[in-house]
C-alpha cells in the first residue's frame, strides 16, 4: 500500500480483528459445505450451490450462477465494485471435491464435517471448502469498504474443477472481458508456498487400429490393436525429452502414458485401441514440439508394425506453462500480506497444472495457494488445520486491499 505507517498498521489490525470475528462463522459454513457430498462429476452440485446461495442472500450479497456450454451449473460468482476505476481481481475456490474412493479406508466418515483437535475433517475440507467459506466472508468485508477501493473484487466458486473441465473459470472468461482482469488468487491449501507458475499440459488420445478376428482362429492375427497399442506405449515411455534450459523453467518436461483401452472379451482380436497420454510442457517443450515428438513415435509404429489404417492423434487439451516472478501482481501482494501476519511462504513453480494455466492463455496472472495446513489431500482422511484460519484470512484481506488501493 502507499498509505502511511500508522494507517497501514490500523489496516492490518482491522483485517486481523475482522478475521478473528469471522472465524466461528467461517468454520460453520465450511462444516456445512463438507457435510454435502459434491465429488466432481459424480454428485449433483445443486445442494452445495443452494447452501452458498442461501448464505449470500442472508448477507445481502448479489450473486449469479454461471453455466457450462452444456447448460449445467459451473459456478457462483459475486462482483463487488469499488468507487474508483481499476481492474478486476479474482478470488477463486472450488466447491466440488476429489472422489472419495474406498470409504472403508477412512478412519472417520468422509463427509463428517466435524472438528477434532482443531482439525476440520472430511472430503473437501482442505480442497477447498474452507477457502470458499473464507472468501464468502471476505466478500462481505470488501463490500463494506468498497467506497475506498478501486476496481472490482470477483469471488468465483467453481463446482466443476476437480473434473479437470474448469467450467467455472471458462464461464467467467465468457462473462467478464478477460482484458479487464488484473489477476487471480486460487485458494488452494498449504501455508508454506505461494504457487506462481506451473508446467503446461498437452493431452491426447492415440487411436490405434487393427483387424478384428477370432482369438481361437488357426491363423495368426493380421494386426492386433491391443498389441500395437502396447508397443506404442512402450515407445512413448522411452522418448527422450529436452532438458531444462539454464536459467529457464525450473522443472523438466514429462510424458506419461495414463490409460490403455481396448478389446471386448476373450474371443475377439480387437480392431481399435486408445492410448491416453499426458505431457507436461515447459519452455523447452511446447505443444507443437510435443505433438511432433508423438507423431514421430506413431509413424515409427505404423512403419514397423503396420495396421489397416494410420494411427490417429486426437488432442483433447493443451495449456501453456506459466510463470510469474515474486514481484508480479498478485503474487507480490499475497506474499507480502502473508509475511505481514507472520508467515514466510516461498514462491514455487509447481509440477501439476492448475487453473492458472488456463488463465495464462488470456494473459491473466495467477497464484495458486496459500492456505491452511492440511493432510490427506485427494486421499484418505482429508482434514485441514484451523489454527491459523484468522491469519490466513487476514492475509487475503490485506492482499485484496493492496490490489484494490486507488493509488496502487
Layout of helices and strands:
Layout (H helix, E strand, L loop, with lengths): L4 H30 L11 H13 L5 E4 L5 E9 L2 E11 L20 E2 L2 E3 L3 H21 L4 E9 L8 H9 L5 E6 L6 E6 L1 E10 L3 E2 L10 H13 L16 E9 L5 E2 L2 E10 L5 H18 L7 E8 L2 E2 L7 H10 L5 E5 L4 H6 L4 E4 L5 E2 L7 E3 L3 H15 L5
Parallel strand pairs: 3-6, 3-7, 7-17, 8-16
Antiparallel strand pairs: 1-2, 2-6, 4-5, 5-19, 8-15, 9-13, 9-14, 10-12, 11-13, 18-19
Describe this structure in words.
It is a single chain. The protein is α+β, with helices and mostly antiparallel strands and 408 residues long. Helix content is 33%, strand content 26%. It folds into two domains: 277 residues, Zn peptidases (Aminopeptidase, 3-Layer(aba) Sandwich); 120 residues, 2-Layer Sandwich (Alpha-Beta Plaits).
Q: Report the CATH architecture of the largest domain.
A: 3-Layer(aba) Sandwich
Give the strand content. Answer: 25-35%
Largest sheet composition: 6 strands, mixed
CATH topology of the largest domain: Aminopeptidase
Order of helices and strands: HHEEEEEHEHEEEEHEEEHEEHEHEEEH
**Order of strands in the sheet with most strands:** 1-2-6-3-7-17
Tell how many strands the DSSP assignment holds: 19
CATH H-level superfamily title of the largest domain: Zn peptidases
Shape field: elongated
Oligomer: single chain
On the 0-100 scale, what is the average pLDDT? Answer: 94
Roughly how many Å is the radius of gyration? 24 Å
- Secondary-structure class: alpha+beta
Helicity, in percent? 25-40%
Amino acid at each position: 500500500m502507499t498509505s502511511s505507517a500508522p494507517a497501514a498498521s490500523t489496516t492490518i489490525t482491522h483485517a486481523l480483528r475482522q478475521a478473528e470475528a469471522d472465524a466461528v462463522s467461517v468454520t460453520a459454513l465450511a462444516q456445512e459445505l463438507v457435510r454435502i457430498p459434491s465429488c466432481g462429476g459424480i454428485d449433483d452440485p445443486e445442494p452445495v450451490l443452494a447452501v452458498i446461495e442461501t448464505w449470500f442472500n442472508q448477507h445481502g450479497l448479489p450473486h449469479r450462477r454461471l453455466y457450462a456450454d452444456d447448460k449445467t451449473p459451473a459456478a457462483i460468482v459475486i462482483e463487488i465494485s469499488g468507487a474508483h476505476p481499476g481492474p478486476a481481481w479474482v478470488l477463486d475456490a472450488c466447491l466440488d471435491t476429489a472422489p472419495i474412493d474406498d470409504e472403508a479406508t477412512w478412519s472417520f466418515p468422509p463427509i463428517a464435517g466435524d472438528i477434532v483437535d482443531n482439525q476440520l475433517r472430511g472430503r473437501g475440507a482442505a480442497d477447498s471448502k474452507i477457502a470458499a467459506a473464507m472468501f464468502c466472508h471476505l466478500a462481505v468485508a470488501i463490500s463494506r469498504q468498497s467506497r475506498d477501493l478501486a476496481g472490482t473484487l470477483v469471488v468465483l466458486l467453481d463446482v466443476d474443477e476437480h473434473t479437470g473441465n474448469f467450467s467455472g473459470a471458462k464461464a467467467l472468461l465468457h462473462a467478464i472481458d478477460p482484458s479487464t482482469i488484473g489477476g487471480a488468487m486460487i485458494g488452494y491449501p498449504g501455508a508454506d508456498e505461494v504457487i506462481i507458475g506451473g508446467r503446461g499440459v498437452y493431452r491426447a488420445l492415440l487411436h490405434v487400429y487393427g483387424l478384428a478376428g477370432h482369438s481361437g482362429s488357426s491363423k495368426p492375427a493380421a494386426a492386433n490393436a491391443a498389441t500395437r497399442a502396447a508397443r506404442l506405449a512402450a515407445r512413448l515411455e522411452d522418448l527422450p525429452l529436452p532438458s531444462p534450459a539454464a536459467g529457464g523453467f525450473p522443472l523438466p518436461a514429462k510424458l506419461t502414458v495414463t490409460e490403455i483401452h481396448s478389446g471386448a472379451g476373450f474371443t475377439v482380436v480387437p480392431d481399435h485401441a486408445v492410448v491416453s497420454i499426458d505431457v507436461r510442457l515447459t519452455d523447452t517443450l511446447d505443444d507443437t514440439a510435443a505433438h511432433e515428438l508423438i507423431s514421430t513415435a506413431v509413424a515409427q509404429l505404423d512403419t514397423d508394425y503396420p495396421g489397416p489404417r494410420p494411427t490417429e492423434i486426437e488432442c483433447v487439451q493443451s495449456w501453456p506453462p506459466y510463470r510469474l516472478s515474486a514481484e508480479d501482481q498478485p503474487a507480490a501482494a499475497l506474499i507480502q500480506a502473508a509475511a505481514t501476519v507472520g508467515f514466510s511462504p516461498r514462491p514455487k513453480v509447481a509440477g501439476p497444472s492448475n487453473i492458472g494455466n488456463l488463465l495464462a492463455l488470456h494473459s491473466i496472472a495467477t497464484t495458486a495457494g496459500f492456505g491452511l495446513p492440511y493432510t490427506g489431500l485427494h486421499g484418505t482422511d482429508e482434514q485441514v488445520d484451523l489454527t491459523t484460519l484468522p491469519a490466513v484470512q487476514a492475509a487475503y484481506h490485506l492482499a485484496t486491499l493492496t490490489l484494490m488501493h486507488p493509488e496502487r
